[in-house]
Design goal:
alpha+beta, Glycosyltransferase, Beta-galactosidase, Chain A, domain 5, 3 domains, 8-stranded antiparallel sheet, 19 helices, 26 strands, about 35% helix, globular
Amino acid sequence: MAKFRRAYNIIRHKGLGFCVFRVQYALRKKLGLLKRSFPAQSWSQIALADLLCPSADSRPEAFLQRHKANGRRFFFEPGELPQPDPAVIAAADKVLQNRFQYFFDKWHSLGSDPDWFVNPLNGQRVDPAAHWCDINVFDPRVGDIKFIWEPSRFAWAYTLVRAYAATRDNKYAEKFWQLFESWLEANQPNMGPNYACGQECAIRLMAMCFALYALWEARASTVERKIKLVTGIGVHAGRIEKNIDFAISTQTNHSLTEAAGLYTAGILFPEFKHSARWVRIGKKVLTAEGLKQIRLDGSYIQHSMNYHRLMLQDFLWVIRLAQLNNDSFSDELVSRVRRAVEFLYQMQDDSGRVPNYGANDGALIIVLNSCGYLDYRPVLQATNYLLNHVRLYEPGPWDEDTLWFFGADALRSLLKPATRESKAYTSRGYYSLRNKDSWAMMRCHSFTERPSHADMLHLDLWWKGQNILRDSGTYMYTSDEPWESYFPSTAAHNTITVDGADQMTRASRFMWFDWTKAKLTTYNSGHGSKLMQGEHYGYHRKGQNLVHRRTVLSWSDDCWIIVDDLLGSGRHELELFWQVCDSGYQLSDNQLTLNTEAGLVGLAVIACDNEIGCKCFRGDDRPIGWQSLHYGDRRPAPVLVCSACAELPVRFATLVSLGEVIKSACLSQANTVSWIWASSGQEQSADLNSILGKM
């Protein structure tokens, strides 16, 4: 019965077509048919001539000369490089020592002869002699496969190229070629884990193209080495093409990145015998999937800020390549991408950061600046210039992406920053309210595509660059329990659990059942009091008509009121979670004081006619009070947990005072909230009934 219910839920949520494809794919894999499409080879068996059109000259020097003169353009002319931020030199010097940065956070050494198959966290290796079809990428003995894949994404190639451009020191070019040849020797075609995912192949292919053009004239770039790199690009494109249907079936950014890699190889190398087909398939998939994955309002299918950025990087790359090579994408697709830029800009804080919302796997596939992983200005500056020919931000280190893609003239273009405003993105349920120094984002959406976290009605609150009410993040996709289950759970977000349960039923690492339904009931972003209200029905599966309704009220620029109503019947264990910024804190009864870099923040939680217990946790051996800003890293961060065991309906009211300490707070039976600020002694009150209406 359990297997039947699981199968029913998969069909209901993913669709019959998806299920039929996946069953056929699994059967092809089990019978060895898939492996036959990807024959194991050695690099010595593959000659460049095997990949080229019959009319192409495969003699190494002649090929390279004709390729340079064939009229296909990259973001810059071969060897003609811009002047990047010299801050990259320190990172490049670490790469010279065979140290690699994982997920733009921690550095690990892979040894004097890099071991491309080892997980640096536990020392476990994946067999490089196994065909990729035979590798279990979720082998618990090995740990998270992303720690194997990360250095093979070739992010270090961008680092070495930028250092070479900054210094013209041949040692950085030489190091690229040494690492590339080491990787090539260790990773024979279709063998080992680094061919197991087409998206990984595409990210690597794009980096290889970048390095080829950037280092074309470097002393270390011999004819033999460049021919090896071109051959590698052709082999990677062939690997992507033969399995891109699987990427499309995932209904994620995998299809976009793989299509971008395929388009890149095809548009830059017309000498390849399949180049025209690669361009055609790449454009077709990018267009169809782009229009499917990006909604009309610019929101993205994967419910993730980081995956939204990845999608923008894919389109920045391919649309710019098309412009340079007398090709184009449809006006409709370009319009969607433009709206996607606007969406992410409106979800951005003035600090450059965005809410740490949704699945965040550390992906940053084009690394052309020294701003840091959490800063989203580089991709928005470059993509906005691509589409609108103006800059969003004042000059800064976030300009380097724009410099590489468009040249120095782009940095002299018109500065036209857009105004960030309160926004309602109804397609996928992102709602924000903005004041002068503070703003909030709430999620309220009925899932129609695969959710990643059980986080409905989650609230992010920002003030003067500080993420006061935050998301806990993702940590890792494959880790020991309880951590693998904790970060996607309801308890890791700013919302309420009922009887300790998640809002949805977790079925596997990447799948939830009983997708949450929700409805926005009020949104007022006009003058005066700004208010948004929504409710979700994730706890209906408990057999009761239980509704969580949340109202977020911007009472003033420095004061926010959040009202949570649990409607229904019966006695339940309720827990309200407020993940707060990692700063000094003090808890006294139901009042929490935070000492942030921007100033004091007061937070008080009160309940009508019910006793609540408030405790603050910060990172112990339990899965509570943690934050992950970078993939694979978790660090202690405070969470305020307010608990009540009560008969429904129950109302919680949370007051957040920015820049002031709350001296006292209460909620009367008439639903009037009053509080006193400690510094001024000024008492304020709000009649919730008059604001929210009778409930």
